[in-house]
Structure to design on (207 residues):
């Protein structure tokens, strides 16, 4: 198998994560300018990115179906693609909650989540760019740990935000809505961690 052919799937993983970065950056931009944006327009932009990611994933699966030999197991290729897709879906879900719950004013700590989410997606991209070298790399494990560390920071931020919410708010509807939005952010970080967990599984099976 040529190096180019062998690396196709690994390069494709890194390309898929670029859509998550675009979504995370768009979400952060929306949050920073929330009072001046048309939410329906921004949802369309977000959905367009998510649709492009779906199309790219579908192209990988079509190619995979025609391959006789693959660099790692087919199930692992599909699993990693699906888990990256879960990140794009999770980010879109956050924005959809703003619309569904008719959010007029954002809580001030929300930009902490969106900035940390950009960090998580970029760290995931770095890990996946190093992934083709998983048998020899001395850096890949550090890249994976960085994604794990960001997920832990997100856990702490989620816990703090929910506690603050319950201290400051007595309205049961507001409590329910914002707890759900915070949880949707938490799902984004969990989805990023699930990608590196799948990568570690591949490493363990192939070293």
């Amino acid at each position: 198998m040529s190096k180019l052919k062998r690396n196709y799937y690994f390069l494709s993983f890194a390309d898929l994560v670029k859509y998550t970065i675009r979504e995370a950056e768009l979400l952060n931009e929306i949050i920073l300018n929330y009072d001046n944006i048309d939410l329906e327009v921004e949802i369309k932009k977000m959905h367009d990115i998510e649709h492009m990611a779906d199309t790219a994933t579908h192209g990988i699966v079509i190619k995979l179906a025609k391959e006789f030999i693959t660099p790692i197991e087919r199930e692992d290729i599909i699993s990693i693609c699906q888990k990256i897709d879960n990140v794009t879906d999770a980010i879109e879900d956050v924005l959809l909650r703003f619309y569904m719950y008719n959010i007029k004013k954002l809580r001030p700590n929300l930009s902490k989540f969106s900035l940390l989410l950009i960090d998580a997606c970029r760290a995931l991209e770095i890990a996946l760019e190093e992934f083709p070298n998983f048998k020899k790399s001395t850096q890949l494990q550090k890249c994976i740990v960085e994604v794990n560390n960001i997920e832990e920071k997100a856990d702490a931020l989620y816990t703090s935000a929910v506690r603050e919410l319950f201290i400051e708010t007595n309205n049961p509807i507001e409590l329910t809505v914002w707890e759900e939005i915070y949880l949707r952010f938490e799902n984004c970080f969990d989805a990023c961690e699930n990608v590196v967990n799948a990568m570690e599984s591949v490493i363990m099976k192939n070293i």
The longest helix spans residues 172-206. The radius of gyration is 18 Å. The chain has one domain: 3-206.
